[in-house]
User: Fold this.
Amino acid sequence: MKLPVCFPLLSLSRGISFEQLRRELAEFAKERDWDQFHSPRNLALALVGEVGELCECFQWKGEVAEGLPGWSDKHKTALQQEMADVLLYLIRLSHKCHIDLPKVALNKLAVNAAKYPASLVRGSSRTHLPQLYGT
Assistant:
């Protein structure tokens, strides 16, 4: 599946791995002596804050179409920065919790595929369907 290009750097970078990001984040924290502050709890709370900042990019905009038509480069750049913050905190949190994030993400996709069979949920945004749960 080819993804639409809505901003110059929005084709997926194939040469960057989670492991590379994890290592660079660890080095970044070490150089600043910040590891002492990076407990799972603190990282989770920081992640929530960054998710809030990400949501602010969409606040009061109504529905936003794919590709962000009508958004200025300034607003797209702000969104990119907040998305990066969320990703980096999530990677750092997974490292501190000793969780292989790419592995569990793939496992979760398999769980969701079994939980929401395409034959039953296609075209529906509902997550609780009587035919799935018998209620």
Summary: The chain has six helices and no strands. Residues 73-96 form the longest helix (24 residues). The mean pLDDT is 89. The chain has two domains: 18-99, 101-135.
